[in-house]
From TrEMBL:
Keywords: DNA-binding. The keyword DNA-binding applies. It comes from Paenibacillus sp. SYP-B3998. This is Helix-turn-helix transcriptional regulator. Residues 10-64 form the HTH cro/C1-type domain. PANTHER family: HTH-TYPE TRANSCRIPTIONAL REGULATOR XRE, TRACRIPTIONAL REGULATORY PROTEIN-RELATED-RELATED. SUPFAM superfamilies: lambda repressor-like DNA-binding domains. GO terms for molecular function: DNA binding.
Amino acid sequence: MEKSSVAQRIRAFRKLKGYTQNELADLLGVSIAILGAIERGTRKPDSKIISKISQVLNIEPDELVAVVAR
């Protein structure tokens, strides 16, 4: 399964901001299993979790879900 760009962006921003999966999961109020599945691309994040992730990482939601025009 190809990893989604949203999953890649979430992981990249998490690492850029210096959070471990455990730390981010705690701040989001979700289990590490859920965050891990989102980052692997096996679970699609809903708009609520995208919003929470963007707030915690201090970025705009569009930065996570931006679609590259081809």
